[in-house]
Amino acid sequence: MSDATTDQDNLIDGKAFAADVRQRVAAHVTRLKQDRITPGLAVVLVGEDPASEVYVRNKGIQTREVGMNSYEHKLPADTTQDALMALIGRLNADADVHGILVQLPLPDHLDAEAVLNAIDPGKDVDGFHILNVGLLATGQKAMVPCTPLGCLMMLRDRLGDLSGLNAVIVGRSNIVGKPMAQLLLRDSCTVTIAHSRTRDLAGVCRQADILVAAVGRPRMIPGDWVKPGATVIDVGINRIEDGGRTRLVGDVDFASARAVAGAITPVPGGVGPMTIACLLANTLTACCRAAGLPEPEGLTA
Ligand SMILES: NC(=O)C1=CN([C@@H]2O[C@H](COP(=O)(O)OP(=O)(O)OC[C@H]3O[C@@H](n4cnc5c(N)ncnc54)[C@H](OP(=O)(O)O)[C@@H]3O)[C@@H](O)[C@H]2O)C=CC1
Ligand SMILES: Nc1nc(=O)c2c([nH]1)NC[C@@H]1CN(c3ccc(C(=O)N[C@@H](CCC(=O)O)C(=O)O)cc3)C=[N+]21
């Protein structure tokens, strides 16, 4: 912490960025309401995972703060597949609901793929329906998953044109790694997706101008895996014990990585807040598409 100027310069403030996105969403919502349209987001939570309940509560609060309607459906852990599918059917048919999010992971006895694919693709604000996955992969207009969308917004803001940059994504999940790769490829990065079987992960990471960590392992990526000047996006949300208290850390060792990175997102206060802001942006986009209105500029991928 010797040079305060440098310290400030290379931090990407996801919290502030997200507040700006929410403000722009709210301005669009105000305009829609003049035409008597209020975007609505339905969030479905099955079971009682404390972390998920926090996210769902935060989503509800922020949804109402931007002027949208929030519909929360909390179902018991022993909910049947049929009951969940029936709820999705009702939400699909409800004209007041423009976005549907089913909080993951679902309890083991439920078939998550079947549930996600039952959501009306136009209301699929998570972008997890196979139709949206296929549209994104083929470069067509899709609903883009919120976490990668938030990462892309921050990267474009920081770096401008991304074309020709080496992007390394650590993690190949359907919800983060793969859609992140699709978006960066669309922006003409040279994309590498690394995972648990990757050989010489350190060497692969050191090639990255853009390094996205989406692994779920606390502080797995040390500063000496980061190319000097690289932009580091830390998606990881890991709860660790620290002196008898729990706190959140990312997949990147923040202190050592920050010392070499050109820019880096913190945890908390980085990708997480942007994910929720992009969920609201996607709900707005879904509402505009449903109403046949022009899409909000700068809030889609
Ligand atoms: N900020 C936000 O808004 C969000 C944060 N998250 C967080 O991001 C993290 C990742 O989430 P998610 O994508 O769902 O996770 P998954 O568990 O679905 O995927 C983790 C990926 O990391 C890879 N991996 C695991 N161990 C290693 C290793 N030692 N070396 C290299 N790769 C490894 C796995 O490889 P393999 O496929 O070979 O097993 C897998 O592809 C979590 O911490 C999660 O909490 C998730 C969603 C949103
Ligand atoms: N269908 C579905 N869509 C999701 O997008 C989805 C999901 N299921 N399941 C769980 C993951 C995780 N996720 C986060 C969202 C916000 C924060 C967030 O706001 N984090 C704050 C801190 C919050 C805290 O203090 O706990 C931050 O990083 O600053 C984190 C994680 C969305 N997910």
Automatic annotation (TrEMBL):
Residues 145-289 form the Tetrahydrofolate dehydrogenase/cyclohydrolase NAD(P)-binding domain. Keywords: Amino-acid biosynthesis, Histidine biosynthesis, Hydrolase, Methionine biosynthesis, Multifunctional enzyme, NADP, One-carbon metabolism, Oxidoreductase, Purine biosynthesis. One of its GO terms (biological process) is tetrahydrofolate interconversion. Residues 12-126 form the Tetrahydrofolate dehydrogenase/cyclohydrolase catalytic domain. GO terms for molecular function: methenyltetrahydrofolate cyclohydrolase activity; methylenetetrahydrofolate dehydrogenase (NADP+) activity. InterPro entries: Aminoacid_DH-like_N_sf, NAD(P)-bd_dom_sf, THF_DH/CycHdrlase, THF_DH/CycHdrlase_cat_dom, THF_DH/CycHdrlase_CS, THF_DH/CycHdrlase_NAD-bd_dom. It comes from the Bacteria. Pathway: One-carbon metabolism; tetrahydrofolate interconversion. Pfam families: THF_DHG_CYH, THF_DHG_CYH_C. NADP(+) binds at residues 171-173, 237. PROSITE patterns: THF_DHG_CYH_2. Signal peptide: none annotated. Belongs to the tetrahydrofolate dehydrogenase/cyclohydrolase family. HAMAP family: THF_DHG_CYH. PANTHER family: C-1-TETRAHYDROFOLATE SYNTHASE, CYTOPLASMIC, C-1-TETRAHYDROFOLATE SYNTHASE, CYTOPLASMIC-RELATED. Catalyzes the oxidation of 5,10-methylenetetrahydrofolate to 5,10-methenyltetrahydrofolate and then the hydrolysis of 5,10-methenyltetrahydrofolate to 10-formyltetrahydrofolate. Homodimer. This is Bifunctional protein FolD.
